[in-house]
Batch of 2 targets.
Target 1
Amino acid sequence: MSNLDKNNQSNFDTALFGLLLDRGLASNLQTQLIEALQKVFSGAHDFSGLRLPSSRVLAQELSVSRTTVVNAYDQLVSEGYLTTAPGSGTFVAHHLSHLTSPVARQSIQPPPQKWVPFHSGVPDQPLFPHRVWSRHLERAWVKPTSDLLGRPDPFGWYPLRKSIADHLSSWRKLECRPEQVLITSGASEAFDIIFRGLLEPNRIAAVEDPGWPIMREALAVSGATVEPVRIDDQGLDAEQISTKASVAIVTPSRHYPTGISMPLSRRSALLSWAKRTNGLIVEDDYDSEFRYQGQPLPSLAGLDRLQRSVYLGSFSKLLSPALRIGYLVLPESRLKPARSYMSRSGARASLIPQPALATFMESGEFAKHLRRMRRTYAKRQASLVTELTPVSDLVDVSSDPSGMHLCVPLRRKLRRLATDETITAQAIDAGLYVRALSAHSVLPNPPQGLILGYAGFDEAVLAKAANKMRHMLRRMAEQ
Amino acid sequence: MSNLDKNNQSNFDTALFGLLLDRGLASNLQTQLIEALQKVFSGAHDFSGLRLPSSRVLAQELSVSRTTVVNAYDQLVSEGYLTTAPGSGTFVAHHLSHLTSPVARQSIQPPPQKWVPFHSGVPDQPLFPHRVWSRHLERAWVKPTSDLLGRPDPFGWYPLRKSIADHLSSWRKLECRPEQVLITSGASEAFDIIFRGLLEPNRIAAVEDPGWPIMREALAVSGATVEPVRIDDQGLDAEQISTKASVAIVTPSRHYPTGISMPLSRRSALLSWAKRTNGLIVEDDYDSEFRYQGQPLPSLAGLDRLQRSVYLGSFSKLLSPALRIGYLVLPESRLKPARSYMSRSGARASLIPQPALATFMESGEFAKHLRRMRRTYAKRQASLVTELTPVSDLVDVSSDPSGMHLCVPLRRKLRRLATDETITAQAIDAGLYVRALSAHSVLPNPPQGLILGYAGFDEAVLAKAANKMRHMLRRMAEQ
């Protein structure tokens, strides 16, 4: 039997065993069964030649007497829908194939939405060790250990939490117990947990401006009120936070989207603010592994020893945003309310990827892959900077030595002729997914610039896209 | 190299490549590097005998000059931390092993929480075709198709949505387009989407009483106000819904937890209510595949042709609650607001299990497994009923021919002596996870009964647990 035939046979079985007979109807069960079977045989699928289940099996599945099925089969044989071969069973008649209309139930599948330059936050997917990863998945689930099948912990699978704690200790100078790690389905859920589970309702959160627009929306959905704080060239200044705010959400390793790294003085000021006001710091450490020159400053939460800060990490830059595995690291004092909230809201992160991710980390594949991506992205960044240097009179391409995207401010000459929004609109028309820096601000007079993701695209693709971009900018400047 | 050694080598590499040097510190980079390496060598892991990366590689990884690394290595050799073998590299000295303290970073792993009888809602896990499932997972991800790596649709992976639409058409008489199916991480997220995405804030939702306590909590978290409506022996009566409620959440196929199936007359009344008041019906069709006698009534949402109802399904009864894949089927009119909400809140369901689940369904394995579970659970239910028949003067064990648990009301004789809460407390002390029916009510004078899950436990385990239960009840009755 070919795979196609097998598939057909199981569609057929599914159709038969899923038949619904209604005991409340006036027509008897035998008549209903005959009509239902006729409908199956003349439906969208061509089942001609397939064998029917024995009358005993179908009777059991449909909870009807065997006589009902035998009589229905007999009737359908006499009507020409079915044929019998003595000793081998009952089959759908071959001449029925003309009744079927194979397109009837077909649905049009939408084309997959591709990543195009300069989509940001997209990891390089061909470079990901898919074979290794799929083997980790398979191994975790072929014969799952009892702890994978037991009552799930709403904080996530313990060995993964332990691998994350180990990773943070060696890469981010953040010492924590695995018990402080809470596996989430990503940043949006993390904000839900923080603003609904750890804090009183309607808290005011100081956020960096410019900042991550999706985060502002997720915060609104989580019931937080957003207070935008304009950053300067050292990132967020704690002095600028209003007295109403009780939370500060920051990206100290690498500000999003400008790439600014917050110096130690500002970090200390933020910790003092938290201490003085009894505030909570949320450190979104989104791209910290990708730094190409120099060493990253250790995490702010590590500096704080997780007293007044929550650390937010993610694996979406590893394989794909679709992995949907992130994590929170919580202060000891917040564990109890977090547990209470998780038991009410329920865990959202699937357990399926968790053991695979844990062994992927434990085996060293994860660190190896991060290092490989770091080298690759460094080259891609350098290449994009080189490609854009001919238009450096229009945009400032002085390289930011980290991350997965460039943020290039418009120079005054270009600013007089166009806004980043108009440039972005033109770029998108030309098939380049550029985003405007100003779209990341809600405050008046936002900075003007372009966000260009490079991590997900190889040098050839980037060169072509940069070429388009250069010509577009040059044309604008000459108008 | 053994696996252990390999593992050790990669821990070592991770430790080295993750070193953080601080350019802002007074001490120079070479001194910092020496100190950091000493710390690695005398840390929790025993790295003695392992080879260090070449000075070129480490210098590149740490973004320091090669000279810095060469000098640091030399210094450590002279201090006895490292040894060199001409032509083959630099190694951690063997005598360092006494410095390590292998227990230092060990964390105590909590024992897995096992399922015990009579936990309800737990599928039988040994019966699940783990081998087949793990192969589907591996195949989906060993060489993922471009649509798995593209921009994820917040409604979930299209082929899975199509498989679900097909399944609902054949099993639940619910005809829908794949575009109406939204993949969620489970019921809690589904309620978030409905109450935050589809409806105005602070809606009042009529819910069945008794009902699912977790749902009431999830609703509260989602910002809905709950209006409990006492059910009778035909389930919820639309006439009892107050004029303030604009949503009704029901389990018509099999009421939770009593198992009552809502007759057609009540379903029609509910549809009229929705039409008259412009209300929304949420059909939670949680166990509909498991009916052992007779045929289930088709879904309410199917009867309504998805005009005024949202259908809620789940796969947690398939493999484990930890799968965290469920779905919503939405009326066409609700697709636009749902899409807008999902783009703001972000998808929570991981993509990792989705292609595996789609091929698992397409290949017919899913329907085959459901049928197998149906047969198994039917036997388990019959066996539990038989085991409890000797105490049928105390509890009403008249079998409900469906589902994964029995709901056995206390008879008057027992009710005079004990409440279901006291019985439950005693049972839990005896290692039996029984829940009280009254705990599912918020209205006064709740019905008294015991909820006994049987699906996840084989006949031998059930017999032993039922024996304990019988003795316990008999003892109570004789006091």
Target 2
Amino acid sequence: MLKEFHETFFALNCPYDEASTVLFGAPFDSTTSFRPGTRFASRVMRAESFGLETYSPYLDLDLADCPVFDSGDLELCFGNTALALADIEARTETILRDGKLPLMIGGEHLVTLGAVRAAVKQHPSLHVIHFDAHTDLREDYLGETLSHATVMRRVWECTGDGRLHQFGIRSGARAEFLWAQAHTNLHKFNFDGLAEAVAQIGQAPVYFSIDLDVLDPSVFPGTGTPEAGGVTFLELLEAIQLVSKRNIVGCDLNELAPIYDQSGSSTATALKVLRELLLSVTKTSGRM
Amino acid sequence: MLKEFHETFFALNCPYDEASTVLFGAPFDSTTSFRPGTRFASRVMRAESFGLETYSPYLDLDLADCPVFDSGDLELCFGNTALALADIEARTETILRDGKLPLMIGGEHLVTLGAVRAAVKQHPSLHVIHFDAHTDLREDYLGETLSHATVMRRVWECTGDGRLHQFGIRSGARAEFLWAQAHTNLHKFNFDGLAEAVAQIGQAPVYFSIDLDVLDPSVFPGTGTPEAGGVTFLELLEAIQLVSKRNIVGCDLNELAPIYDQSGSSTATALKVLRELLLSVTKTSGRM
Amino acid sequence: MLKEFHETFFALNCPYDEASTVLFGAPFDSTTSFRPGTRFASRVMRAESFGLETYSPYLDLDLADCPVFDSGDLELCFGNTALALADIEARTETILRDGKLPLMIGGEHLVTLGAVRAAVKQHPSLHVIHFDAHTDLREDYLGETLSHATVMRRVWECTGDGRLHQFGIRSGARAEFLWAQAHTNLHKFNFDGLAEAVAQIGQAPVYFSIDLDVLDPSVFPGTGTPEAGGVTFLELLEAIQLVSKRNIVGCDLNELAPIYDQSGSSTATALKVLRELLLSVTKTSGRM
Amino acid sequence: MLKEFHETFFALNCPYDEASTVLFGAPFDSTTSFRPGTRFASRVMRAESFGLETYSPYLDLDLADCPVFDSGDLELCFGNTALALADIEARTETILRDGKLPLMIGGEHLVTLGAVRAAVKQHPSLHVIHFDAHTDLREDYLGETLSHATVMRRVWECTGDGRLHQFGIRSGARAEFLWAQAHTNLHKFNFDGLAEAVAQIGQAPVYFSIDLDVLDPSVFPGTGTPEAGGVTFLELLEAIQLVSKRNIVGCDLNELAPIYDQSGSSTATALKVLRELLLSVTKTSGRM
Amino acid sequence: MLKEFHETFFALNCPYDEASTVLFGAPFDSTTSFRPGTRFASRVMRAESFGLETYSPYLDLDLADCPVFDSGDLELCFGNTALALADIEARTETILRDGKLPLMIGGEHLVTLGAVRAAVKQHPSLHVIHFDAHTDLREDYLGETLSHATVMRRVWECTGDGRLHQFGIRSGARAEFLWAQAHTNLHKFNFDGLAEAVAQIGQAPVYFSIDLDVLDPSVFPGTGTPEAGGVTFLELLEAIQLVSKRNIVGCDLNELAPIYDQSGSSTATALKVLRELLLSVTKTSGRM
Amino acid sequence: MLKEFHETFFALNCPYDEASTVLFGAPFDSTTSFRPGTRFASRVMRAESFGLETYSPYLDLDLADCPVFDSGDLELCFGNTALALADIEARTETILRDGKLPLMIGGEHLVTLGAVRAAVKQHPSLHVIHFDAHTDLREDYLGETLSHATVMRRVWECTGDGRLHQFGIRSGARAEFLWAQAHTNLHKFNFDGLAEAVAQIGQAPVYFSIDLDVLDPSVFPGTGTPEAGGVTFLELLEAIQLVSKRNIVGCDLNELAPIYDQSGSSTATALKVLRELLLSVTKTSGRM
């Protein structure tokens, strides 16, 4: 008898209760003000993931040894931001409650807010490490407070001063940069200062949010708002290594918009970042 | 001294107070559930409009003789549907109050609701003529009542039974087609029955909404949800001629998503529909 | 506990043993001599299928009432044609043996050979109805007998003279057209003669193979070898209706190459053809 | 010893002195005012021509029996219109002087002027049959008299009143349509009147110029200025048949801009038009 | 009453007489011999500029504080090079005569010649600093002396030996490199030697011409002739900083061809270079 | 009389018997398991090669001085791998037997096997230097031993242990990396160790195979399986210089798939690599 058809990230097939990391997609881009399209990221990444090796020659580790469960994509309501964020928060809470690590694939960066709200409930002393080209610190955008352009301001409302650590930032309004001086730990352009930040955080719980546009558009043009002057792929891998040694309780990868890179190269790069991230943050009980 | 730079549709330069028709763009697609991109329609159409002749060999009329004012694009808030609709309603009201005909360029089809709300306030006995591939008659979409998939249900709430006339419809849920039998004047696949509907409406005020996906995807692939089996360009021109003989008090053209047709042909076709529509509905005081 | 993630055509979820039709993808295009890319058809169609309504206003039928099982895509070996055909034959045999109707999504047209080989074993008196722009009747192609350009010659070897009925043919070598006069029932350009052919076949078992390039490139540019002068979408629907009244024992839909139509319109059209085909050939036990 | 590599249209290999028709490309688009790109037409058509059968099921004729020589592409100077036209005129003159039929692949439509200048020198009583979406009858364009937008006005200067027969025209300035009433034989929208025109021309020498944008953009989006409402592929074939029965002394095919149709379908259609044209106008000494 | 619609670069709205820098577009690419398309650069850049922040975290300066006027695009005659250059020269002269700094957006690189001709009239001792991948030093191109491939030779005719400083050059004919040794200050591959050149120029008037293809194609593929081995975005910013400390009397940014980079990333990068250039060269009367 | 039309790489026109290097294309990608398209590489490269200067400012050498013959593209049978490899082997043997250097343009990487088989027959002590992102060392792929994924394993069967030198490798199965430790000289990520390898090889005959995906996808996205983290263009040039000082008896350039980079930048980069390679490996008898 023919079995049902499953397509999962990297063809992973670990059952939910044996998994220590749980993937899910959050296809939502309703508040994107420039060029939408990140809603297609998780679907396209999953489909293309069969083209990537599961073994990392960087880490000498293999996803085949990694207990990861792909719980598929949420069905989110375009045009109703509050509802979409509530769905994301609920999924994240379920995963956290089951003692597993949630890894969300966005979507626009606003999806991070849903996940952070769930994480901070369980971990009130949460730090957030944020890689991005953009500040995302506006109080509101055309009057709306829930927006891709305000998400880190809303995250800061969850964590308070000094617990939001931003790296790679190279675009924003002057007022945002000024506001950041008082409230966040903002590092311009690259990962300078990351080692110090990570050391200072120690064993506090960390939510790790990667906006892939932190990468230079040369290697990652497939995003709504490409910003020249970003970090290289190898710099990002090294930074992920640094962060993943902390006590990660949740993470996400955002802002791939596959349609803007018809070479498929941005998707392939996002997948490789995902592989390295999964290999770095997933707890195993006996990796070589 | 160098003058300021103006780019308008077809390089039209009639002043506002001499105009009888007023164009505006409504770049909004936050509730689009499948493929977004209609937010770019008005901008791209305006830019490409210089490649189209202002003279119509079909009508033997010229836009140069047409008192049309281009009032530019609204700046709408992505992610806040109610706010966006209110802005559209306000712009439409202003134009109606000044005794002019509003012609809106969407955007997703939901933008029609803002304009109809303004029109029905001034014209309580309003009829709506609706060309579309889709029913757009759902009560809600994933719980949200303001959506591209529900817009004609909301319009019906403004007009009541028997005043919403739908043509070209070839896609929808079974329940929508059933509901339409009791409440709207729905015609499947093409413009059969249009002459009768138009005769019956007589001189009642009419809002005229054209979802360009009523066209066959062969001539109009540049839209979020292309539906094979649509009408031809010449059938659409003829239908516009029929409708425009009525008492039109407002109209719109929706659902061009330029990014999905990189040949530019869909944009060129949308512009030609716009030209013919402008020539047909604009009041002049002495055209040849 | 989170459940496993399933993506199926049109989100169909009928279990295998209750299904009367079984879908599968045959992603193979190794012998394509001009432009490859049909290997991506089933994957892209499945992903895009959620954008299409399950209800057909043409037939007033709904896929929700149709017992169809999606058994996913075969993993075929690029570069080893014989092996790939054997895998297709095996899958088809399993479905036929379980008393169900196989519906295969290609791939290049050669995949039909695998399915016909299975069908003719069970139904030695098999007829084949073939919609296509191309004859596909060469004896060999650069010395190779298993090729997209020879597939109908190989099919003829299974059925013998007078049982292969070809429609819409508008491209081929002169020698193929001459050969067809003696051996197949070839109709040029359109569906003229289809009603007669169908009447003549009567209740004999029929394998129904649709090469989507029978459609005009205006509505279906997304294929390796577009041939101007094809049939319209509505003509194809009508022809499918005619054929599906026969005793269909297997069918397929081939030659969508999504990459060549970046508007997505060809994929949407292929899906609508698939919906109408499924609604027409699937046996139900009590449809309205 | 390895031979030199030749790529010709349809792999034609008839020597020059045995040929009765001579092909050449005129890759020039310097005066295109909207979207350039026709310079790539001949190169792309030649490369793609190996994907098209040489046999026509419409005419039951084969290019393999047709004495056609491909003389390659001219190297024309972008930015120097007069020089480019002179090169085209010279090539056409050579071919005419050798008693052969020149068939030029443009390029923008202005290239026709070079060929007509050569033809009218040899055939002072020349008629021109012109298929096009556009009038091309301006006196000048931004002050320049040699332009794609003025080419038929310049051609008229070669032939005089009543010898320029225009078909399919659906775009132009009002003044051009008015001017045409006095000077050319202009037919709007389609081929109505072609049979009469052809009968009237009798055995006078005819230059036959096909701007491929006479086709509807649904089947031919790959052109700089697509104009909805054009003729179908089969209507064009039929019209070519009508014209080719006259005394054709030169012909051209223009305005394919491959980059605007990434499906390749426009190029394939242009090639099929070219095949049918070659089969219709080439003199053979004993075709079946 | 509704106001007229203005779309300007970065939504700048400084009046002409208060501006110290004046932008204009020069959409011209008639002499481009390989791949045209730079004619669309200024239009697309203006449209996309609303997606870029006006604040520079590199310079800690904001365009909102910069007195810049956007005077729109010239309407240039394709196919008549001399006329187009005269129009550019006239516009540049007007701006210079009014004591303002002209900043031109090309177009192909030939447009620089029009601007330099105006500048050298007012500043006979003019130096030209030229960033480019190409030498652009041919005497003629297929017999034509006004060409993108000859522009710097023509510029040299305006300035004389030793006043043309070229950087980043990595493509050209051997003869051009040899000629440059005697007449220009040519630096291969990168900006080595720029500091020395700038020091040597001192306070002499400088025209600053940036061909954006000096950037590596990885970050700037959207150009007609991409040349691997170019400079990085940050190297270019640094070099602009160096040059802008001189007495700049005119500048331009050339050779973006948006159509060749459908990710939009090249346009975004060009805009960021423009922002940094504007912030660096615009005179303000009291910047922080 | 008009001459036949020739299009060759860089318009090279050296006759075969005067040539020391012979180019040919091997358009084959039947076994590509992810994204096909390399079959178009040689055709597109040849067509685009006229946009590239023949002079190298890196080497101060010019292709005009290089005795290179372009023998065109093989016509290979898609779907019959063994036959295709035999054709490649035969062409390579002919060139080698005539004492010339074969330079093959793929195609997928499997084409290398045909050329190596010919080379090792003439040079039994052959070394192979292999630049690639991928190991290509599988024993079989889905049961097939002739595949792009197994090609270097098959090459190793020709050369034996210690004669296959791999550089830039950053993707493969763990088992392949382990196998390589015992059998090949594999260097991960970049060209570290190349100087040593080259020194060790000394004057032994070398076949040099460049899979262009060794380049970073930022500069070379146009390939089937882009792998982030690759080498830069300048690093590749330098490595080519190192290798070409050895006794090169054959070489190839593979895996450009032009369709995946619509900017044309990958093709331009491939051509520049080809130019530098030709200038480096071609024997001349008296270059300046």
